[in-house]
Amino acid sequence: AKSDGRNTARFFDPAMQAVAEHQAALERALHDALSTRQFVLFCQPQFSAAGQLVGAEVLVRWRRANGELLGPDAFIGLAESSGMIVPLGQYVLEESCRALARWRTDCTLGKLELAVNVSAQQLRNDDLASSMAGILRQTGAPAEKLCLELTESVFAENVAAVIERMHALCSLGVHFSLDDFGTGYSSLAYLKRFPLTALKIDRSFVHDVHLDADATSIVEAIIALAHKLKLDIVAEGVEHEAQRAFLVDSGCNTLQGYLLGRPMPMRDFERLYSGAGTG
Ligand code: C2E
Ligand code: CA
Ligand code: CA
Ligand code: CA
């Protein structure tokens, strides 16, 4: 901070310095959080259009040493910029596979699929296919029950390498859905080249689907496209009955949202749904 001029002055601005120090402290805490097992997995149920429980999305939370529970929006960005997302993502995959293995013998849980968010960086920086193979082997999880959710940010660079890695993962038996569809880089031309089984309509479109003609047309277009490409369509952020009804009528396969179930600690999810089916 030797150079003169505005940037130097700003560096010593106490407010800016406080922000920088807070970020640095958070980053150190984030690093320790993994070894002290402060990350907890939540599950949000997913239902078929007919209303049957078909799976859950895994959503990570950070229970800090002071008891505070942080949502991913407070730390995933930092985890990505610090590289921590790779070991954190690995941990989330391991815990998810442990759950799938545990659920095998349960008449309800054993049928469910788990959707796990995978950051573009995990796919880029980590040898994800070999670590995934190791996790599947160690846990004994049924790979076909694991769905990896990617966002359109994977379209941003080196598409050929991404597709190759996805194929390597597919050959292990896992499958992919494209999350937050409609918000990012998606090129319709690329869509066909990726080995995907589902598109997940972003909740910003779902939000207005029963109110706004533009949102209605966008959702109808996405569903038509998905059907044309033989992809399932998952709607997230379903909060109102009118949204649910519209989405089901439009041909949406799977629904997720506060109307149907909130994210809850994985143990609560297991207690709530285990053995609940008719087998
Ligand atoms: P996402 O993948 O789009 O996850 C859905 C988010 O929508 C979750 O927020 C969920 O709690 C919230 N949500 C679910 N139903 C409703 C609803 O009806 N209304 C509204 N308003 N919101 C709803 P959450 O748990 O805060 O997660 C935020 C984001 O953090 C996720 O967005 C995902 O991108 C990321 N994330 C979560 N867990 C992981 C993870 O293990 N790894 C990575 N890389 N990212 C994660
Ligand atoms: Ca997701
Ligand atoms: Ca999403
Ligand atoms: Ca989202």
Describe it.
With 279 residues, the chain is of the alpha/beta class. Helix content is 46%, strand content 19%. The chain has helices at 6-11, 14-35, 76-82, 85-103, 120-125, 128-139, 159-170, 188-191, 203-207, 213-228, 241-250, 266-273; strands spanning 39-48, 53-63, 69-70, 113-117, 146-151, 175-181, 198-201, 232-235, 254-255, 264-265. It has an 8-stranded mixed barrel with strand order 1-2-4-5-6-7-8-9, surrounded by 4 helices. Ligand C2E binds at residues 44, 59-60, 71-73, 76, 89, 92, 117, 119, 179-180, 203, 236-239, 257-258, 263. Residues 23-277 form the EAL domain. This is EAL domain-containing protein.
Please state the overall shape, judged from the principal axes of the Cα atoms. Answer: globular
| Major beta-sheet overview | 8 strands, mixed, barrel
Unique ligands? ligand C2E, calcium ion
Low-confidence stretches: none
Order of helices and strands: HHEEEHHEHHEHEHEHHEHEEH
Strand-residue proportion: 15-25%
Report the structural category. alpha/beta
Number of helices: 12
Compute the gyration radius: what is it? 20 Å
Helix content: 40-55%
Strand order of the largest sheet: 1-2-4-5-6-7-8-9
Strand elements, count: 10
Q: For the residues shown, what is the average pLDDT?
A: 91
Whole-Å distance between the termini?
66 Å
Protein name: EAL domain-containing protein
Domain EAL: 23-277
Give the helix/strand layout.
Layout: H1 6-11, H2 14-35, E1 39-48, E2 53-63, E3 69-70, H3 76-82, H4 85-103, E4 113-117, H5 120-125, H6 128-139, E5 146-151, H7 159-170, E6 175-181, H8 188-191, E7 198-201, H9 203-207, H10 213-228, E8 232-235, H11 241-250, E9 254-255, E10 264-265, H12 266-273
Parallel strand pairs: 2-4, 4-5, 5-6, 6-7, 7-8, 8-9
Antiparallel strand pairs: 1-2, 1-9, 1-10, 2-3
Helix pairs in contact: 4-6, 6-7
Bound molecules: ligand C2E and calcium ion (CA) (3 copies).
Residues 179-180, 200, 236 line the site of one calcium ion.
